[in-house]
Amino acid sequence: MRAFVAEKRGDEVVRGVREDFEIGDLGEGDVLVKVAWSSVNYKDALATIPKGQVARISPLIPGIDLAGTDEDSGEEVLAHGYDLGVAHHGGYAECARVRSEWVVPLPGGLSAKQAMTIGTAGYTAARCVIALEEAGLTPDSGPVLVTGASGGVGSTAVDILAARGYEVVASSGKDPEYLKALGASEVISREEAAGNAERPLDKTRWAGAVDCVGGDALAGVLRSLRYGAAVAACGNTGGIKLPLTVLPFILRGVSLLGVDSVQTPMALRGEIWRRLADDLRPPGLEETIAREIGLDELEGALDAILRGELTGRTVVRLA
To answer: At what angle do helices 152-163 and 112-134 cross, to 10 degrees?
Structure first.
């Protein structure tokens, strides 16, 4: 079968499409999936470079999410997270062997391509929105900031929030028209979102936020949240350190909500996917958010996402 493989050789990683990868070498798992679609995520790119610190086996078929058909039952399924594409061969191949406890039945109303247009990024965005609403955020609360808004998580978060009636402010250094087409009422610079790092508190502005960046951006968001507001944090492309005082927490009662998409319990995972096919479905699912590539174009897309050049979601066609 065809597969995109990354293999560590000394201090380098050799990667590319192989035509003769054996299905018998896919590793352990009781479900064989004929993969139709996968997607491009920042973590996938990290799994293919020497200093990425993501890949835990070599050779590795990356791809932290996939959708296709269970070869035994004939049912359409999807899988993402856990060890997929990290310590277990992932979605960048015509077939994948996965554990049954990783598999989610494809929800009614979503095709396999649409599921991977949402993918890990859109699933994470939905978890962020749910976390904020469970913390009390409503469309009447005020403006909601999304940092790193041009990326996969950010753009889907903008799309979902706008569709639910929120006033969405997007922070990005890229094309503002794309974000406005998704429903952003305003697009601000990364620098404006980060604010003044010398101040322990900034002027209150945001009723809530989805942070896909971390680092200075997340610190700036926390300094400028309104009293009692929350930020859902899910990314670290801007760094893992958080240069901040405790003052936003003890003087304004703000909350930092950590959002994970890898180890979500299966019952909750299935419920979120059902909502992604229903009330959390991104309106710009295919028309605005996604672009499609084949396996032979994958290497260029992985390089582009590392350089911060990809906008929205890129889905990978396997069948």
So the answer is: 70
- Cβ 32 vs Cβ 71: under 8 Å: yes
Helices (H), the chain: 42-46, 112-134, 152-163, 176-182, 190-194, 215-223, 247-251, 266-276, 298-306
Conformation bin of residue 265: beta by default, left when phi > 0, alpha when psi is -120 to 50: beta
**Distance, CA of 142 to CA of 93 (rounded, Å):** 44
Quick one: which of 123, 122, 150, 119 has its CA closest to 309? 150
The Cα-based distances of 315 to 76, 117, 184, 206, 246 in angstroms read 17, 6, 23, 32, 41
* pLDDT mean by block of 10 residues, the chain; 319 residues: 96 96 95 98 96 95 98 98 97 98 96 96 97 98 97 96 98 92 96 93 97 97 98 94 97 98 94 98 82 96 94 94
Q: Closest Cα to residue 211, out of 223, 196, 200?
A: 223
Dig out the tokens for 306 from the structure.
């590392």
CB count within 10 Å of CB 144 equals: 27
What is the Cα–Cα distance from 133 to 148, expressed in whole angstroms?
Answer: 20
Residue whose structure tokens are 């672009």: 291
Alpha carbon distance 137, 166 (integer Å): 10
Model's pTM, two decimal places?
0.94
Two tokens at 153? 């998580």
Nearest to 42 by CA among 175, 177, 265, 214: 214
